[in-house]
Specification:
Layout: E1 2-11, E2 14-24, E3 29-33, H1 40-47, E4 55-60, E5 63-64, H2 69-73, E6 76-79, H3 91-101, H4 106-119, H5 135-146, E7 153-157, H6 165-180, E8 184-189, H7 192-198, E9 201-206, E10 209-214, H8 216-223, E11 227-233, H9 239-246, E12 250-253, E13 256-261, H10 264-277, E14 282-288, H11 292-300
Parallel strand pairs: 3-8, 3-9, 6-7, 7-8
Antiparallel strand pairs: 1-2, 1-4, 4-5, 9-10, 11-13, 11-14, 12-13
Length: 306
């Protein structure tokens, strides 16, 4: 469905995307996982043809995106990171406006608007202005607007940023239903659990590059991760000191230390002894089996934080 070959994007002297390549199968949910500034949104903007890459090629549904802009856009739905709604319009008015942009008119547009508003659970509040909606409700209307023209592919750029847990779960259910019905989805996020829960395959992005991609099991094999030891202290530990004493790759964030381990039972005693001898009081210790967080830490040398 989508083939991306060695695309780059520069903003002046800053290279936001550095020659990334990936392919997405028809009906697949493909995740772009990485911190803010990794190049995820820039990649989405190039896929949606908001602006072209400086080099490389994007093929969508067998068509070179640079040569068939209108035809490709017609099969794509875009859910941008920023809310693309008019605050002083009602939800119904927003839906009708965006439907007209897609060229949908009359009864067809009204029927589709009603269908989508019911689907996102907001039909009963369709006459209320968007500025009265919560962040999660706005996100759901944003998704509905992107689906008015029944696209084959939908691009979702951080669609759960700033929403409450209940709205996030509702958005998860909507996305899973779309994917179950065969829609191809590209999903960007900096939340580990979202990528694990929703995506068939995941590309880990960092500094404008894809450092690894595959299913979760494939990523675990590529990174050769096993367990992760997480230690919480009463005060912030000295990362440099503990790295030298443990002679292992560690990551420190606030009062927490994380260390990858191929033998957690053996390493646990060493970690406790080293940290205690160094004068850092331990509050809590947790051993986590190999997961996406440990893969990301292994691949990038850093933890992914909000």
């Amino acid at each position: 469905m989508i083939e991306v070959k060695n695309i780059t994007k520069n903003y002046g002297k800053t290279q936001a995307v550095r020659g990334i390549s990936f392919s997405i199968k028809d009906g697949e949910c493909y995740g772009l996982l990485g911190p803010n500034g990794a190049g995820k949104s820039t990649t989405i903007n190039m896929l949606s043809m908001l602006f072209p890459p400086n080099s490389g090629q994007i093929t969508i549904n067998g068509t070179d995106a640079s040569n068939a802009n209108a035809a490709v856009k017609q099969i794509m739905g875009i859910v941008p990171q920023e809310i693309a709604l008019y605050d002083k319009f009602t939800a119904w008015e927003n839906i009708l406006f965006w439907g007209s942009i897609y060229g949908i008119k009359g009864k067809q547009l009204h029927d589709k608007a009603e269908e989508l508003l019911k689907w996102v659970g907001l039909f009963d509040r369709r006459k209320e202005k968007i500025n009265s909606y919560s962040g999660g409700m706005k996100r759901r209307i944003n998704i509905a607007c992107a689906l008015l023209h029944s696209p084959k592919v939908v691009l979702l750029d951080e669609p759960t940023v700033g929403v409450d847990p209940q709205s996030r779960n509702l958005i998860f259910e909507l996305i899973q239903q779309l994917n179950k019905e065969g829609m191809t989805i590209i999903y960007t996020t900096h939340y580990m659990e979202e990528a694990e829960k929703l995506c068939n395959r995941i590309a880990i992005m960092d500094n404008g590059q894809i450092v690894a991609q595959g299913t979760l099991d494939e990523l675990k094999q590529q990174s050769a991760v096993t367990d992760m030891i997480v230690v919480d202290f009463t005060q912030a530990p000295d990362e440099k000191l503990l790295a030298e004493k443990l002679k292992s790759e560690i990551s420190v964030f606030e009062n927490s230390l994380t260390m990858l381990s191929s033998d957690s039972k053996k390493d646990l005693t060493r970690v406790v002894t080293t940290c205690t001898d160094a004068g850092f009081e331990i509050n809590r210790i947790d051993i986590q089996k190999g997961n996406l967080e440990s893969v990301f830490l292994k691949m990038t040398g850093k933890q992914l934080r909000d």
